[in-house]
Amino acid sequence: MQSTKVRQRRIARAQRPGGPEVIEVAVEDLPEPGPGEALVRVEAAGLNHADSLIRSGGYVVTMPFPLAVGVEAAGTVVAAGDGAGVALGSRVCGTGWLGSCADHVVVPVERLVPIPDGLGFEEAASVAHAGAAAGALTRVWPLTGRRAAVWGAAGAVGRLLVAWLSRNGTEVIGIAGGDRVDIPALLGAAHIVDRTAGDVAVQVREATGGRGVDAVFDPVAGSTFRTSLAMLAPRGCLINYGQLSGAVAGTEFADLFNAGGVFVTKFNAGAYVDDYADVTALIGEALHLAVERPEVLSPVAARFPLTEAAAAYRALESGAAGKVLVVPGLSQGDG
Ligand SMILES: NC(=O)c1ccc[n+]([C@@H]2O[C@H](COP(=O)([O-])OP(=O)(O)OC[C@H]3O[C@@H](n4cnc5c(N)ncnc54)[C@H](OP(=O)(O)O)[C@@H]3O)[C@@H](O)[C@H]2O)c1
To answer: What's the pLDDT tens digit per position in 305-324?
Structure first.
């Protein structure tokens, strides 16, 4: 193994299911990368809503506790196990890096994505997870030459999704709120809808000559589900990929019949990618898109030192407008 001089690391763990208060930062011996693994010094870890759902203990994805929190980060390779085939000093990012809220994390090399010139660590840590999701989402429903509405079109996933779908020849209606409403147009959306300015389904129907859209991408769930059904064209598809307002309750087959024989799916990213090589290819594509079109990058809403990981998750969960990062190199009070 090639190695670093550092002997210990700090890592954030949720001690039990619960809110951000269950997160504690431990100091422990630095793990050694095994065969096919790399040790990455984390420069920036991106926080994601799924981290919070999994930590709550009440989500469809369950993990054992204590749980090392975070899945997304960007950093520098500082050591590599046998056969890893990765150069020390490489700038890398990715998702599926379990326990990324740490100053060092061991990652299987197939989950490392090179950061292209022109992008910094914070930018890469803001794009990796969203890029994998947005890329896989474009595979769900055939949409070239058709229309789609995207909720949260100014969010991390939404921005990439709008840009990706528009580039693929989909007429996109970007839905955003308040002062972020102009952002989807910068990313290629043909129409924008301000969700704070009246009935969203009515606005979407107006934008489509009354027909509605062939697909709706909805990360919100509980509070938007019926509105999403109401904006679909006959035989359209509602693609739910998150539950920012809680789970959907009380749906009947009759609702789908009345909406025009529509389809509804709960997106499972794993069902739309072949393997990690496929995931890293999607992230690579998203990173290059971010180099070409910096507007796809969600702005950084807040940076926290690792010692304040719990506060960072509190910021994410209170609706920060933009990406929340944990930056291990920051000292307490710097954020
Ligand atoms: N399944 C997967 O593989 C996967 C992967 C990544 C993310 N996700 C999910 O995707 C969702 C978005 O993640 P993200 O990282 O893009 O989050 P984000 O950057 O925080 O963006 C979320 C967007 O949703 C909008 N929003 C929030 N609450 C809303 C509400 N009540 N009604 C309508 N719009 C609302 C906000 O936009 P406005 O206020 O401007 O409307 C915000 O820009 C999350 O649910 C996350 O769990 C899933």
So the answer is: 999 999 999 999 999 999 99
Cα(113)–Cα(90) distance, integer angstroms: 10
pLDDT at 61: 87
**CATH no. for 141-266:** 3.40.50.720
Which residue ranges does the chain devote to CATH 3.40.50.720?
141-266
If phi > 0 it is left, if psi is from -120 to 50 it is alpha, else beta; for residue 261 that is: left
Tell me which of 6-15, 67-76, 92-101, 243-252 is least confident: 243-252
User: Where does the chain have alpha helices with state H?
Assistant: 49-56, 121-137, 156-167, 183-186, 200-207, 225-230, 253-258, 276-292, 309-317
Residue 6 has pLDDT above 90, yes or no: no
Contact 158 CB / ligand 1 (< 6 Å): yes
* Cα-only R_g, the chain: 20
241-276 pLDDT tens trace: 999 998 898 889 999 999 999 999 999 999 999 999
Nearest to 276 by CA among 116, 96, 20: 96
Ligand 1 touching residue 10 (CB < 6 A)? no
Q: What is the third-level CATH fold of 8-129+274-326?
A: Quinone Oxidoreductase; Chain A, domain 1 (3.90.180)
280 lines ligand 1 (CB under 6 A): no
Distance from C-alpha of 11 to C-alpha of 101, rounded to nearest angstrom = 6
Ligand 1 atom closest to Cα of residue 53: 47
d(CA 87, CA 187): 35
CA-CA-CA-CA dihedral for 53, 150, 95, 99, to nearest 10: -20
In a mutational test of the pocket of ligand 1, which residue from 48, 49, 243, 295 has the highest number of ligand atoms less than 8 Å from its CB? 49
Considering the chain, tell me which residue range(s) the CATH 3.90.180.10 domain(s) occupy: 8-129+274-326
